[in-house]
Amino acid sequence: MEVTRIDSLVTAFIHPIEGVNAGLIHTSEGMILIDTTSSAAEIRGLFEAVGAGLEEVRMVVNTHFHSDHTWGNQLFTCPILAHRLCLERMQSGLKSEWSLEVLQSYIADLEKTDPIKAEDFQKTVKDLHITLPRSLMNASKGNWVE
């Protein structure tokens, strides 16, 4: 993943091969993280690369429900903001494609075709605790609600 400091206030994390992108906005009161990548290990590595601590994040924004934008949520106790549809899709995913049974089946299938990718994905989901957004955009009023 490429770490690009756009200016003194914005850092972009870009992984062109896998399409995983995240952003970090530096404010006087702490940081705002835009998307949390696909794993706790990956987001920790990004914060190490910029010399920042996870505890400096004051707000997380999930732009949409994809795992590469939300599976790092578990590391943050600050407000995690998202649109209502993002939350609903994540909740649905927990009952379907993100369920433990489906993830284990995917890994078993992957072991037959790409053992290295299977091992990497196993590491990603080993300690995964999918954390849902805690604050939602109220589109009709244009504000956030807990």
Structural class: alpha/beta
SSE sequence, one letter per element: EEEEHEHEHHHEE
CATH superfamily of the domain at 2-89 and 129-139: Ribonuclease Z/Hydroxyacylglutathione hydrolase-like
Mean pLDDT: 90
Overall shape: it is globular
Distance between the termini: 33 Å
Largest sheet: 8 strands, mixed
CATH fold node name of the domain at 2-89 and 129-139: Metallo-beta-lactamase, Chain A
The first-level CATH class of the domain at 2-89 and 129-139 is given as Alpha Beta
DSSP strand (E) fraction?
25-35%
Number of helix segments? 5
Describe it for me?
It is a single chain. With 146 residues, this protein is α/β, with parallel strands linked by helices. Helices cover 36% and strands 28% of the residues. The protein has 5 helices and 8 strands. It has helices at 40-49, 67-70, 84-95, 100-113, 115-126, and strands at residues 2-7, 10-15, 20-27, 30-34, 57-61, 80-83, 135-138, 143-145. Helix 1 links the parallel strand 4 (30-34) and strand 5 (57-61). The protein is globular, with a radius of gyration of 16 Å. The N and C termini lie far apart (33 Å). The relative contact order is 0.14. The model has no long low-confidence stretch (mean pLDDT 90).
Provide the descriptors you would attach to this structure in a database record.
146 residues, 8-stranded mixed sheet, Metallo-beta-lactamase, Chain A, alpha/beta, 8 strands
